[in-house]
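Hi R.,

As promised on Friday, here is the backbone we talked about, encoded as structure tokens. Could you run it through your design pipeline when you get a chance and send me back a sequence?
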């Protein structure tokens, strides 16, 4: 009994600490990685809370001050985790207004698919594209092999941008719709491209598309460069005058501080808010999943449909979103707003990310 009590209390302290850790505004990977599993942490804390409450009645020592304090702390940590993911549940109000029927002229359907560079089931992805018939496919982690395989889409998707790379940051954009003013950029880090293009809808309306895939938090790789890239895109998106989409594997979760800051700086909406989590990673582990693949849009779009598609061997599920452009929606849709403190924080994060990359490049090319 005493051993069980010690285990429950030790786990409670551990999960409380993991809840508090992301409150530190540090780009360190070992801190930021705990932004991701909030659903899993909330579930674990809920179980530990129940166990602690039971222990208050059945443990030999009874409801001591330390036991009660730990129970309250566990409850607060569980509540904090639940509060973070609450916007991504159907009980929250939606950000993206619903579209009630398809609109061929003003519709735009997008699939974002991180293919996993070593995955060799290209046929599985091509079959999904054939079934869903999106207007645009954004494929990530595409190398020379994937470039050759995805050439099968060229006839149906005559407008495309191909950036095959062997470093897991390759990117392909296939479009049925005309792409104009295509710009391939390495916004922060060499070898990590993004795409900006103007998409012409069937109605003749033009919108801006940003396809992005910044670095994830990994050992020896903090998130400063990731945050800088996302916030630079956010600022640019806010300044553009056309309807706007930002899509890709952001290597960040919807509920993180950085993603919410991205929304406030850009003014873009998240169609998952009020609808669901739409977890796309990790496709190989049922209990360890969170939303890494994203699509944000401005207020002139309504959401017709959004869903996570079936797996095909990648560690990411593809995500599909069907939008309808409706300028009248601007008057009714909410708009995330950045205050002066947000702007200062964004500037600091951008400066930190750019400086981090310059330091790494200097180290990489040091003579001798």
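Update: got your reply. Pasting your designed sequence below so it's all in one thread:
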């Amino acid at each position: 009994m005493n051993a069980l009590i010690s285990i429950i209390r030790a786990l409670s302290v551990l999960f409380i600490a993991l809840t508090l850790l992301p409150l530190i505004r540090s780009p360190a990977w070992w801190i930021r990685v705990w932004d991701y599993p909030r659903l899993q942490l909330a579930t674990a804390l809920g179980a530990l809370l129940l166990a602690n409450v039971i222990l208050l009645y059945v443990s030999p020592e009874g409801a001591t001050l330390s036991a009660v304090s730990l129970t309250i702390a566990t409850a607060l940590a569980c509540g904090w985790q639940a509060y973070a993911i609450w916007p991504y549940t159907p009980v929250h109000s939606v950000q993206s207004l619903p579209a009630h029927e398809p609109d061929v002229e003003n519709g735009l359907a997008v699939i974002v698919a991180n293919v996993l560079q070593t995955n060799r089931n290209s046929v599985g992805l091509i079959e999904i594209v054939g079934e869903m018939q999106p207007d645009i496919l954004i494929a990530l982690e595409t190398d020379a092999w994937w470039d050759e395989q995805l050439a099968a889409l060229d006839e149906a998707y005559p407008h495309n941008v191909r950036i095959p790379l062997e470093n897991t940051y390759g990117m392909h954009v296939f479009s049925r719709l005309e792409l104009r003013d295509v710009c391939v950029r390495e916004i922060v880090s060499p070898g990590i491209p993004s795409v900006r293009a103007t998409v012409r809808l069937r109605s003749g309306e033009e919108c801006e598309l940003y396809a992005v895939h910044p670095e994830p938090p990994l050992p020896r790789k903090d998130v400063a460069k990731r945050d800088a890239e996302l916030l630079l895109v956010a600022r640019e998106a806010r300044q553009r005058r056309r309807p706007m989409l930002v899509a890709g594997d952001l290597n960040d979760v919807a509920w993180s501080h950085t993603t919410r800051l991205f929304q406030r700086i850009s003014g873009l909406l998240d169609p998952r808010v009020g609808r669901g989590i739409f977890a796309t990673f990790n496709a190989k582990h049922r209990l360890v999943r969170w939303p890494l693949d994203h699509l944000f849009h401005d207020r002139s779009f309504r959401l017709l449909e959004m869903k996570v598609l079936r797996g095909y061997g990648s560690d990411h599920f593809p995500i599909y979103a069907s939008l309808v452009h409706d300028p009248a929606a601007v008057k009714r849709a909410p708009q995330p707003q950045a205050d002066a403190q947000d702007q200062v924080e964004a500037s600091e994060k951008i400066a930190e990310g750019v400086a981090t990359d310059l330091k790494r490049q200097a180290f990489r090319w040091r003579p001798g």
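One thing I noticed while checking it: Residues 18 and 135 are 41 Å apart (CA to CA).

Thanks again,
M.
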